Amino acid sequence: MCVNNRFFQALFLSATLALTSFSALQANPVVSVVPVSKEVISPTAMVSGQVQSRHASELSAGVNGKLVWIAEPGTAVAEGGVLAEVDARPYELAVRQLEAQLKRKNIEIERTKRDLERLSDLYQKQAISAREIDNMQADLALLQSDEELLQLQLEQAQDDLKKTTVRAPFAGVVTERLQRAGEDVTGTAPLLGLVDVEHLEIRFHGPLAYSDFTRQAAQVSVYYSGGDTRMPLRTVIPVSDARSQTFTGVLKIPADMQGAFRVGELVTVAVPAALPAEHFVVPRDALVIGKGTTSVYVIDSENKAQEVKVSIAGGSGDYVNVVGKLQNGQRVVVRGADTLRHGQMVKVLSTREFPLTTIGS
């Protein structure tokens, strides 16, 4: 019986200690903190972007004829590689015909030159009139003009013959085939699509009002499937239509990162929404948003929570710029602020005890 009494006394004492400990924890809520920092940063707006090739074309032959061969989609070709062939027979015949005509014209010119020399001798002997010399010289000039025209026609025919073999203007991959072998094609009809998959860039559209801020930025942040990085700005086109009210920006993908992206891939671009300015910076999780108010809690030297009203001046990623009565280095509550009251005592836990797993991850 004595043993049972001692057991119940011990059990009662343990329960009392547990309740006391629980009450103490309730009286002093636990929080995690990070220091307030003051930095010169620019607020950003997140917009969508797309990876595009710097070289993408729909290629045509430039001549009419029957398509005898065309590359399959997915075929990789080097610059100058053959992509399609148009029946060259009619163009070969045209070249041969003009070559024959040019040869015949050269014979006529040589004969006329010899006739002119004979007439010149006769004219020196006063056997013929000057009119006959003038007529012969005019005939020679006409023949030489005809020769020039034939030469131009021959060059055009040779160029057409060359076009019957469609070659890649740059190294790339065939993305689509718009015509098939055996079909009659026109010179302007697209035959296939070719895309350079080695030289890429990112195009994005941002609010037109932010175009000047973006143009002044040397680099912007890009978030993609493999993480995030900073990329240099290639150009900004601050022109929009009445409906979209957006500008176009182009980012240069560094050579050492080309392999991390694919044509058509969607990314997120942080577009500068204002000029860089000095602001207090706190984690987004530190904000306590009420009815029409936004505040943060800072912890003073006595471990008391002090509410500070702030206004948001933009942000980037997990952090926001705020304006309020803060000081650089103050401890701002990141976890546990939602239930705090002004002046309440708190227990500050270390990051090991209360890890901030989402900040900066």
From TrEMBL:
What InterPro entries does the record tag this protein with? RND_pump_MFP
Residues forming coiled coils: 95-167
A GO CC annotation recorded here is: efflux pump complex
Q: Where does the secretion signal sit in this chain?
A: 1-26
Q: Which domain of life is it from?
A: Bacteria
Sorted keywords for this record are: Coiled coil, Signal
Q: What Gene Ontology terms describe what this protein does at the molecular function level?
A: efflux transmembrane transporter activity
Gene3D superfamilies named in the record: 2.40.30.170, 2.40.420.20, 2.40.50.100, Helix hairpin bin (1.10.287.470)
Q: Which family does it belong to?
A: Belongs to the membrane fusion protein (MFP) (TC 8.A.1) family.
**Name of this protein:** Efflux RND transporter periplasmic adaptor subunit
Q: Which organism is it from?
A: Pseudidiomarina insulisalsae
Q: What is the lineage of its organism?
A: Bacteria, Pseudomonadati, Pseudomonadota, Gammaproteobacteria, Alteromonadales
